[in-house]
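Reference record:
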Amino acid sequence: MKILFFGQLVEMIGAKELLIEDMTDIDTLKAFLHQQFPLLAQSKYIIAVDQEMISDNRKLENHNIVALMPPFSGG
């Protein structure tokens, strides 16, 4: 699956996107990313799967596009 990063998360990861396979759900993906990128574990971010923001664990498939975005506020 494609993982997209935005804002200051790009600087933490060192890339705008990663390709990762065989992540069964969001919790597994987050654990993997936090292990690989410890600064990400200390950051707040919003997760979207296929352009839908989520706040709970969700099953993933290799065709999904997951985006991690820093919190934002409207005005």
User: Anything to note?
Assistant: The mean pLDDT is 94.
